[in-house]
Amino acid sequence: MRASVGLVFAALLASSGCNSLIGPAPIDTNWRVHEGPHVTFFVRPGSFGEQNVVRLSEVVEDQFAATTRVLQVNSTGPVRAYAYNSAADADFPADYSGRAYPDTEAFRFTCIPPLGDNLFGLMSHEANHVFIVSGWGRAGTYFMTEGLATALLSETFHRAGRHFLFPWTRTNRALVPQLSRLVDDSEWSRVPSNIAYAASASFLAWLVDTYGAERLRQIYAASSEELRDRLMAVYGRTLESLEAEWLRFTDSFAG
Amino acid sequence: MRLRSVLGAAVVVLLPLDCAHAQGSAWRIWAGHESFTFRDVASSKPPVDGSPVVWRGDGPTLTAGHERSRPFRLHRFEVTASTDGGFVYDTGVDVTPRPGGDSATFVAGRYDYLRYLRRHLFVDGLQAAIGVRGLGERRVLKHHYGGDVALDETDVTGTIAYIAALRVTRFRRLGLDVELADGLTLAHGTQRHRSDVESIDVSWGAGWRTDVAARADVRLTSRTSIQVSYRREGEGLLFDHRSYTSGRRGVMVGVIYAR
């Protein structure tokens, strides 16, 4: 009895408690560093990312310039970009994945061939999370957080922005949920993520192009409950009215 | 900052001592040095997905406390204040200094109740205890970014935790104890993002907290002891649209005065 009580206490004390089970993994140090003007890359030695880091740097610096110009914010940085070899390397659920950490100005993504639209789009989307939150603070909804990061994609080096989003909206009209569902945080996770991300981005890209970023900023931090009233106050239109105008635009978008 | 901490600890250590081990009622005061680490979290599914970059600072910490003990029970009250500066971004590969305005300050109040088992474990003088901890804390984190952008965060937290502890009472002049506390936290957070426009995000959150502490106290006189302690705290706080984990480690030196 005495021994078992002792062992229980010894095990509890040795476990270091919840934090060692739930808390984050230790910092990974197996990186080579490539410094850029605003974004510093961390790549695995000898990896596809290291071989192409100059091109990746060009793309993300262009994205930095585009996002800060549209949002009219002062420069931020240096931001740190971590390029992983695979989903397993990054502990992501799938190969085409990334995550952003705006408070510590970092993001990470899977960097796998080919070097093209998908990779550039993914990297730029994650980078945009950091650029946007640094400049404008936290968004009030998942719709705004995820949608704006893709809506602001620069297309200098790829076509994963407007030239993908607007035709996608036209050809996938049957799949696109009503915006009233997407702006509701409690509904967001029930919509397939690829559809939720693309539809939100398409609408917000159109909204920025049509009405400007300054108005968008006034609705940016609105929560799901506040967004409808904020739209009416800023745009003088209902969500449904703006949605109808956006869909008419995507139907006629010629590229 | 480090010099201030060392001086603070020295002042406490050099107080006139005429010491005692904690039996009955005792007052304690410690000073020391701590480091604070912060990582924002992208996914809170365990184990949480923490940033590859650590925002880290350090600074002085001061604790005052009172305890009432019976042979098998202990009530302990403590108030702790800390302020951390000299922040850096630590990637594990390189360390980059942050603007001088980055800071973290903490004020916390804590109550522990411990109940020691009557039987000694393995050897005479080794006692186990279980207990509960109630902890309230207010923290202010100030984080600056390029382009005159600043993020101020004020979090008020309440934690309820269990405690598992072991103490060695075998020696007349030396006491040792180690404890683990694991608990759940309720938090109220306010983030102020300041650039050319100020935005405020207020939300409720929840999380976990783990505290590990080890102490050694040496009896100097019948009433006074000197104590050296090491503590390590880890926690996670999950709010709407944002989460973070943080850790604090510190070494403290202090005196115990028993009445």
Question: Can you walk through the features of this model?
Answer:
The complex is a heterodimer of chains A (about 260) and B (about 260). Chain A has 14 helices and five strands. Chain A is an alpha/beta fold. A five-stranded mixed β-sheet of chain A has the order 1-2-3-5-4. Chain B has one helix at about 1-15; strands spanning about 25-45, 50, 55-70, 75-90, 95, 105-115, 125-145, 150-170, 175-195, 200-220, 225-240, 240-259. Chain B has a ten-stranded antiparallel barrel. In chain B, a hairpin with a 3-residue loop joins strand 9 and strand 10 (about 200-220). Classes of the chains: A alpha/beta (about 260), B mainly beta (about 260). At the A-B interface, helix 1, helix 2, strand 4 and helix 6 of A face strand 1, strand 2, strand 7, strand 8 and strand 9 of B.
User: How much beta of chain B, percentage-wise?
Assistant: over 45%
Rg measurement of chain A, Å = 21 Å
Task: Using the alpha-carbon principal axes, give the shape of chain A.
Answer: globular
Helix and strand composition category of chain A: alpha/beta
Which class of chain B in CATH terms?
Mainly Beta
Strand order of the largest sheet of chain A: 1-2-3-5-4
Query: What's the rounded overall pLDDT mean of chain A?
Result: 92
The total of beta strands of chain B comes to 12
Q: Which architecture of chain B per CATH?
A: Beta Barrel
Structural class of chain B: mainly beta
Number of domains of chain B: 1
Strand order of the largest sheet of chain B: 1-3-4-6-7-8-9-10-11-12
The description of the largest β-sheet of chain A is:
5 strands, mixed
- The Cα radius of gyration of chain B reads 20 Å
Determine the N-to-C terminus distance of chain A. Answer: 77 Å
Question: How confident is the prediction overall: mean pLDDT of chain B?
Answer: 88
Overall structural domain count of chain A: 2
Shape of chain B: elongated
- Helical residues, percent of chain B: under 10%
Question: Can you count the beta strands of chain A?
Answer: 5
